[in-house]
Amino acid sequence: MHNQVQDAEDQLGLSAWTINSNNTDEWDEAKTAIVEGDCDVLLISPERLANSQFQQEVLLEMNEEFGLLVVDEAHCISDWGHDFRPDYRRIRRILNELPGHIPVAATTATANDRVVDDITTQVPDLDAIRGELVRDSLRIQTIEMDSKAERLAWLAENVASFDGSGIIYCLTTDEVDLVAEWLQQFGHGVEPYYGRLDGDRRRELESQLMENEVDGLVATNALEMGFNKPDLGWVIHFQRPPNLIRYYQEIGRAGRALDDAKAVMLSGESDDEVAEYFIEQAFPEPEAFQEVLEILEASNTQLHKYELLKHVNIGWGAADTCLNILRVENAIYKGENGYERTTKDWPYDHDRIESVTQHRWEELERIQEFAATDTCLTRFIDNELDGSLERDCGQRANCVGGFVPSTIEKGELVDVAVDHYKGASTGEISSRYYLPKQDGGRSVIDDDRNMEHGLVLATLDDPGWGTRVREQRGTGQYHADLISAAV
């Protein structure tokens, strides 16, 4: 949002503000600008609509001043969008409460016919206008390369050949750090970027990329929506994204104001494990929803999340998903002291969740096909988005040949990359910081009573020690070098 605010001010001369969790020090100034009519544009995430203080102090103040409501990334409204977010459902309620004369625009670059139909059903009287999907400046190439060590070697050999600055996307923060450290060893000016960095650091990195002060950022999809650098020269995917629409959105960061930009995707079967995990963990089991509702219904007071977790056998992330869905659908209410049950009946929509999950499996199959196809890559994407392209583009890798090598020139680099994985794979398992109290709430565990942090030697999918563990775990005997590394 910081990038969008800057664009609105610098390019359009608007007084633009945002209220989000990363700029709490600016909230009072933003609210004053809104109340006094000095705010032309306010940018928020849909999650902000759940905040009762925001509703009272900001939305109500703006109600008479609304000139236009814009829903960006509108595919998130749809169950069938590649990045469905429950909080986007709140937008429908806002629309119902707005005066009828206020215009509404919903925009997205990544919606097929099914998603468009779903959005127009949820947002009444919406006229759909579709433009061309193909950007002639963007050249695309896919490379099958299952070994992550080989992918590191490929990056070391080829990143310098890309013009301008760019983005290397990874699926996890661990991979972001590992890839960034690897490229830094070879003199590439890249920095890691992901959501858990503090807001100031993220803004600093975005600014460095905007001003071409770095060669690129190695990032998760935290660097995606709203980021606009017209002269971004390239995007590389170190791992295959979980679906083709997300891939298209991420490569769409490149080449907006260039005649030639490049997008390369490295992929292999090992990428499926991450994608399958996120699909399987997207929705908690029906029993979890039911248990949460029953516990809240039986309670005479509001309950915090960590109090609920004492009674429901789910993890922290699953609890967040469960509570968020129930809040959005008004089955529960979050007050100052925790959550409480509302009077609204809430049946578990098994058919809908099964359909959405099945759709995500189908999306995974489609990007697997994309990675392996020898047909026109642009036409493949265009067809997936129900575009109008009727012939091959004649300029992407599968049409005219690759623009970068698909193999590694120096085999010894792979061995160096394996050693890099061995050196970087040791992770930390943090001990618990809090202890639940008998009367509810939690307390910080004293240092002298706390456990030491644990250590992780490797994950099974890494090409360093992980490969050795996979090879030896069924034999009943581990080699001395693996034991030495572990101790």
Automatic annotation (TrEMBL):
Q: Cite the GO molecular-function annotations of the record.
A: 3'-5' DNA helicase activity; ATP binding; DNA binding; four-way junction helicase activity; hydrolase activity
Q: What keywords sit in the KW lines?
A: ATP-binding, DNA-binding, Helicase, Hydrolase, Isomerase, Nucleotide-binding
Q: Which domain of life is it from?
A: Archaea
**UniProt xrefs under InterPro entries:** DEAD/DEAH_box_helicase_dom (IPR011545), DNA/RNA_helicase_DEAH_CS (IPR002464), Helicase_ATP-bd (IPR014001), Helicase_C-like (IPR001650), P-loop_NTPase (IPR027417)
* Domain Helicase ATP-binding, first and last residues per copy: 1-129
Which PANTHER family does the UniProt record give? ATP-DEPENDENT DNA HELICASE Q1 (PTHR13710:SF105), DNA HELICASE RECQ FAMILY MEMBER (PTHR13710)
What is this protein identified as? DNA 3'-5' helicase
Record the organism.
Halorubrum coriense DSM 10284
